[in-house]
Amino acid sequence: MPTSLPSPTAAARSAAVAPVAPAIDPERRRAAASHFYARLCAALSKGSLVLGIIGLLGIIVSVQTQVVGRYVFNDTPTWTEALALQLVLYVTALGVAVGVRDAGHIGLESLVALLPEGLRLKVELLIHALVALFGGIMAWSGWIWVGYKWDELDPMLGLPVGLDYLSMVIAGVLIVLFSIEHIVALLRGEDVVPAWH
């Protein structure tokens, strides 16, 4: 007698029970963070995702405008390539920040999961503190470059070259905020739920 497969509704129910953002150790189940700061970071993350999607659409439109101008009208617009490159910077910066919040960055999770509970928490806190430090350095150095390059104009767009480095500042600030959110969640015994869920 053939074995019956689980119904789609049973599979959906079991998927709904599984945690969205499990802790490093899948055996540990933590409650989702729901305090004000977690909701603020979730809103910033969702906003970053929306802006990233808009930026990707802008890149597509910009590149298509360049291709049509070159091959259809034999007149390539000079601003399209510069705009596409500018948008790539911002889409990448926002994507990196959201990746930090949703734990999409590279990590040695299997190694950390083998550690004892007390040491594991300390290592996780250290990891997020180091990521926050990286974000702070990124924001600070980006701000310095914004100041250096603000008076210099991009010949193709007519905008300050400092806008290129402003993407580093935005990403760095968001990384710091999201890393602090992870630290607070760990100290409270909670999990950070990805914004896209």
Automatic annotation (TrEMBL):
It holds the Pfam family DctQ. One of its GO terms (molecular function) is transmembrane transporter activity. Its main location: membrane. One of its GO terms (cellular component) is plasma membrane. It is a multi-pass membrane protein. It is found in: Cell inner membrane. This is TRAP transporter small permease protein. It comes from Paracidovorax wautersii.
